[in-house]
Design a protein that fits this description.
single chain; alpha/beta; 2 domains; about 30% helix; about 30% strand; ATP hydrolysis activity; ABC transporter ATP-binding protein
């Protein structure tokens, strides 16, 4: 990761909890513009909460999230929605909704009481469905879709939002190997071809190392380490964060590090 790249998002001294339970503890994290940042760490460490805080779905007890230098707390809801999109873990919608109806929901931040649906909205929805490969399923009910098809439809909804920053919480969870690759290749194209800033939560360290520009290890509500995958994928660091002994080898195809776990530390 090139530290000279400007940060699109700055998480500063962020503390956040649920009742008396502290989840994020004075956490700091820069998210570089135009790169893919992957958050990884043990279950319950605060990754999903951090992602939701970036989208202002949880108000912090202290600290701030800055977007292009501006505190997101000062932005109106739809204005923030036009700049940051979020696909949460296990989203839900009525099963009789069509794919096109689902994707059209992504245009909500662009709507106003006196502003009718426009040709630009149609183009955004059509482009999002085409880019995710679901255009031919536009009139299918989402209850009839496979897991991979449904996940692509949800991602299309986020793309229709046309935000420059896209946050995806475990987007490949419950998908088979082929659909995991399809999803992450799509995300990579959005980043490389359109310059979108991407923030992902992934559990699979090897997928994280393959696709990340910046890999961030979160543990105990804090950022324990961050950097390029080649720097982060170290046996000692993985043992510290995940309590697992492992061997690190080089993927001969993609030239990225691979973690081979041995056992719990």
């Amino acid at each position: 990761m090139d530290e000279r790249v400007a940060s699109r998002i700055e998480v500063k001294n962020l503390t956040l909890g649920y009742g008396q339970d502290l989840v994020l503890d004075a956490l700091d994290l820069p998210i570089p513009a135009g790169q893919i940042t992957v958050l990884a760490g043990p279950n319950g460490c605060g990754k999903s909460t951090l992602l939701r805080a970036i989208r202002r779905l949880h108000a912090p007890q202290s600290g701030a999230v800055l977007l292009d230098g501006e505190d997101i707390a000062r932005l109106k809801g739809k204005a923030l929605g036009r700049r940051i999109g979020l696909l949460a873990q296990s989203p839900s919608a009525p099963l009789d909704m069509t794919v096109e109806e689902l994707v059209r929901l992504g245009r909500y931040p662009h709507q106003a009481m006196l502003q009718p649906w426009s040709a630009r909205d149609d183009v955004a929805v059509a482009t999002a469905m085409a880019g995710t490969g679901v255009a031919h399923m536009a009139q299918r009910r989402i209850g009839s879709l496979s897991g991979g098809q449904l996940q692509r439809a949800w991602i299309a909804m986020v793309l229709a939002q046309e935000s420059d920053v896209i946050c995806l919480d475990e987007p490949v969870n419950h998908l088979d190997m082929a659909h995991q690759l399809d999803c992450l290749e799509l995300v990579t194209r959005l980043n490389r071809e359109e310059g979108r800033t991407i923030v992902l939560v992934l559990h699979d360290l090897n997928l994280a190392a393959r696709y990340a520009d910046q890999l961030v290890f979160v543990s105990g509500g804090k950022v324990r380490a961050r950097g390029a995958p080649e720097v982060m994928m170290r046996a000692d660091l993985i043992a510290e964060v995940f309590n697992v002994t492992a061997e690190i080898i080089l993927d001969p195809v993609h030239q990225r590090p691979i973690c081979i776990p041995h056992r719990r530390g």
